[in-house]
Amino acid sequence: EKGGYDWFMLKEIDEQPQAVADTLLGRHDSAGRLVLDEMRLSDDELRGVDKIVIIGCGTASYAGMVAKYAIEHWTRIPCEVELASEFRYRDPIVGRSTLVVAISQSGETADTLQAIRHARQQGSKVLAICNTNGSTIPRESDAVIYTHAGPEIAVASTKGFLTQLAACYVLGLYLAQVRGTKYGDEISATVAELQKLPDGIRTILERADAVRELARELAGHRTFLFLGRHVGYPVALEGALKLKELAYLHAEGFAAGELKHGPIAVIEPGLPVFVVVPPKGRDQLHEKVVSNIQEIRARGARTVVLVEEGDTSVDPYADVVIRLPKAPTLLQPVLAAVPLQVFAAELASALGHDVDQPRNLAKSVTVE
Ligand code: M6R
To answer: Which of 23, 132, 272, 365: CA 20 to 30 A from 157?
Structure first.
């Protein structure tokens, strides 16, 4: 059933263009308006939401971090993200006008399940973003947006993550549409950009040999850092988590803007540092990340830079450049995560580890 692949994870990485396309399928019309027939919350209920709290564990929580940037930008509804395991133990302030969004591939994660039970007891509406039809979390939620990734067998989430991102974008745009926010004009343009993502992922996968080669070359290192800013920050966290899970290595993700507040002290000659560069835009994010790359390069780090095609500004400071197809900043994580998945899988396999069943981990964590 691995379809000729050595590992399910590799098959699932390659299934991502289709999985993302399937998750977007039928969720917008030809004019770029969102259509969510399955949404069981009325427009009135959604218009009454004054706060969104997104919860999830591990990779799902990183999808939630990306979603926060997108949903706040498009809807202007204040949005918090929290690890599901932390949520209920701090007596969170949630109530009737709070929408809790629970993200879970399996739909069975105990931390997330307990968190939504708590939220519903407080009177909040819960919307699940889930990949498993009929699982417990969507059954106990008020509404659900299913991701259409198909079964994810490998413990390390790949297509689960990308389709969670796609579903979060759909949710954010749908909320913006229902509420008629000032970013309404961006909706159809963003839907058109979402449609391009499957091809963008395909392009990255076609170029993945270079990433695999890099993984084999770096297989002797014990520590890896990942830096990103804005939506690139959760991508950095995800890149580090993949490497921890699969290769049992010390890997850390940082917000690039935090470098000077501590992490730069650990930079030493030869240390591999992956950096996700945001597309050039009107804000100064891009220049700031480029200057971070200069700073770590000046301290001898080996820089692996993920950057949009056509952007050569980082070339002088990059030991390795991984080019990403063009996408708006908010959607870039769908592309930037892919080389990091490929890298972690290849490095783990170079080290002789079980890529699908890493030690100490289970696919769905049904105890708190
Ligand atoms: O099934 P869930 O999405 O609720 O699972 C959440 C995490 O346990 C999961 O994402 C975990 O972090 C993965 N092993 C990441 O690759």
So the answer is: 272
